[in-house]
Amino acid sequence: MIYEGQSLQCQMLDNGIVEVIFDNKNESVNKFDQATLNEWREIINLLNNNSEVKGAIVTSPKSVFIVGADITEFLVMFANPRETMIKWCIEAGAIFSGFEALPFPTVAAINGFALGGGFEMALTCDYRVASTAASVGLPETQLGLIPGFGGTIRLPRLIGIDNAIEWIAMAKPYKPADALKTGAIDAVTEPEQLIEVALQMVNDAINGKLDWQAKRAEKQAPLKLNQVEATMAFTTAKGVVGAKALSHYPAPMEAIRVIEQTAHLPASEALKEEHEGFTTVCQSAQANAMVQIFLSDQLIKKKAKIAAKTASKQVKSAAVLGAGIMGGGIAYQSASKGIPVVMKDINTAALDLGISEAIKILNKGVQLGKVTPEKMAKVVASITPTLDYTTLQHVDFVVEAVVENPKVKDSVLQEVEKAIGSDAILASNTSTISIDKLATNLQHPEKFCGMHFFNPVHKMPLVEVIRGSQTSDDTIATTVAYASAMGKSAIVVKDCPGFFVNRVLFPYFRAFSQLLNDGADFRQLDKVMAAFGWPMGPAYLLDVVGIDTSFHCVDVLASGYPERMSALADDAIEKLYQAKKFGQKSGSGFYTYTKDKKGKPQKLVDDSIFELIGQPNTELNEDEIIDRMMIPFVFEVIRCLQEGIVDSAAECDMALIYGLGFPPFRGGALKYVDQIGINQFIENAKKYQHLGAAYEAPELLQQMAANNQNFYSA
Question: Which one from 248, 264, 444, 452 is the annotated catalytic residue?
């Protein structure tokens, strides 16, 4: 062994070839943290001074190659002054360039994930061979960043401007076959032959069969395109990417700017522009928020893994009670992840609806090429429709998804508890009804909890797992593990009116109704809140959720939190409900819903709506609209954290992003407060305290302001 560190080792093989091994002894994966960069620098210096070395291969004995940079170090690092960040970029970039400049051919043997900095490392090599199990790409823009280790320079010189911009701006991982077609890698082989092929490749380079010096020179030279070609390529790219990225996500456009500015420069000079561009985006509010989202998501995944390890049993079979749209969606989700499910209802028509919902989802997948006909057949065969309870005797887990009525749910839950095994877990897919209330007549309340899915089930990543006062830890662990096995992100919340997501959403809707009472135009409110970053404005969202669904939540939340959530007089939502305008489902709500000539749904404004809800008579300042909508929403999130309804700020924010589509570039409600500043947020709220208790800062927030704290710290 020539070198042995904690993250890297280096050994001499036959024929003057060295193997540089990425194998972090303290982690399950390889990633570029500062310690790894330092060790890599030492190996480069060692190899530069060893005249016996004729070539090198880079390998990893782990199931991954290198997943990228260590994101846990990012937030602290990004808080440094700009000059410090650029200095760090220069120093880190010099290590990558140093490996690229070694006086002999190099080959990367990519066995698994090589993403971000991991693929940038591979790009420094003269050749790249990938196993069929590998996955490569530069997904930095998903974190609000751009490649910072030379990716914006080396990749365009290997695969061309158009392909490189697509790789970087779209941030997708690529399979080896696709990467081979573009030239991002040079060969693909089966996993067991990877090292052999890499050694053959480096030997061919040493023996002159491969012109590795010409290959290297291509990466270091200016791009070969004239001014007309360049103008056309970059103009098209800016139009396409700009339309998708919008102003809230500056990283993709910054990546294009760097590529454009450096196209006619040699790599050594071009890297300086990448350092500047990387520093610009890494110190943006968007990157700060999106890196935090990544870290928070890792926390949720870690908790799910712990749950899977601590649960007394693994869910291998399940059942769903209620075969409507929601029940069919839950059945599909379970079956599609390899967990067979029984779907129970009281009539054949309902079962047919549930099965057709699963088939509809699968058909869409087949049309898009994401699902094979064989997979579709297997999933459908894994769903067993039934009209009686006997088929449920041996299932491990039951999700009740019948109508949102406490008496109906109570009756169904008592019936099914008698039909299932004593060790089976029972969960209710209720959106508002108290878990403790539903557990009142159960024989085993410790084996009962809430499992709140969001519609449409196959698209929405969040599941709220609701802990009742008698729910056991094992029940929670098993439910979280089952949700995770279904491909969902589970967040545990305590039982309370509205649980978490619906509880915090109601003050947002109530603020909307207050604005309408004050003469605001729902069209302006939708426009402003969509520009804020929500997937849709509040009026449109109410139509999509269902005016009737929202109206029925009022009593539960008003009785639970009368000071902040009491019903409003002259509420537009109630007027729509009484007029049976339930939103999209009925064809009209705030908007009317029709289909265009091509059969695509479209929403329109029918002026007659104002005869029902009242004519708008004022146009408000955008900042006032945002404050009035967001302050009660954010304050209710903070109260949930204060009351221990949710364990952490990270889980609060991820529930909002996954369950409501809270703007990811803002990082969640609590990250949003951090970025505005807690003291400033409290000051903003004081202007609206005359509107009621919903605008009064929670005690937790006032304490944090007094102690100069934030919800997140680097």
Answer: 452
